[in-house]
Design a protein that fits this description.
It is a single chain. By secondary structure, this protein is mostly helical. The chain has one domain (36-129). It is 42% helix and 0% strand. It has six helices and no strands. It has helices at 2-18, 42-46, 53-57, 68-76, 89-94, 112-123. The structure holds heme C.
Length: 129
């Protein structure tokens, strides 16, 4: 009988201690998660990303026109909302978000290190720098 009470006490303590935890951890949205540099340059960091793969299709016939001389204006024409990466179809298409066409192809998604740069550039105001 004594053992039974000891066991009960241990169980009760366990329940009591277990109740001491935070229900709401800060919510982390997993979008890849590396460090995003502070001052991202369009011409040096972003424009080169379109070379090859993207320009192969987006060469003037399919908007956005991602050829170097046209890409900034074309992207700002409806594909990028400065300061709002999560409302920019450019970024949403790179992370294959629902509701936009997945780029560069449905089977091929960029690593977060690359799409995070695009996110950072947009959130820093999508400057033509
Ligand atoms: C195989 C050809 C092809 C490649 C490669 C490609 N795209 Fe596209 N992209 C398209 C076509 C076609 C459309 C328009 C029709 C559609 O939405 O599917 C499009 C649409 C888009 C859109 C608009 C999406 C929307 O839903 O509004 C963006 C932004 C975009 N592409 C960016 C890119 C970027 C950045 C790359 C390189 C990572 C890329 N694309 C690579 C063919 C391609």
């Amino acid at each position: 009988m004594k053992n039974f009470i000891k066991i009960l006490i241990v169980i009760a303590m366990g329940l009591f201690l277990n109740s001491c935890y935070y229900d709401s951890f800060p919510q982390v949205i997993d979008e890849g998660g590396g460090e995003i540099p502070d001052d991202i340059s369009y011409s040096e960091d972003i424009m080169p990303l379109w070379e090859g793969q993207c320009v192969a299709c987006h060469n003037g016939n399919i908007p956005p026109d991602l050829r170097p001389q046209n890409s900034y204006n074309s992207l700002l024409d409806g594909f990028v909302e400065p300061g709002k990466s999560l409302e920019s179809s450019l970024y949403l298409s790179l992370i294959h978000a629902p509701g936009v066409s997945p780029m560069p192809t449905p089977e091929n998604k960029w690593p977060a290190a690359k799409s995070d740069l695009v996110k950072g550039w947009i959130d820093q105001g999508a400057k033509n720098n």
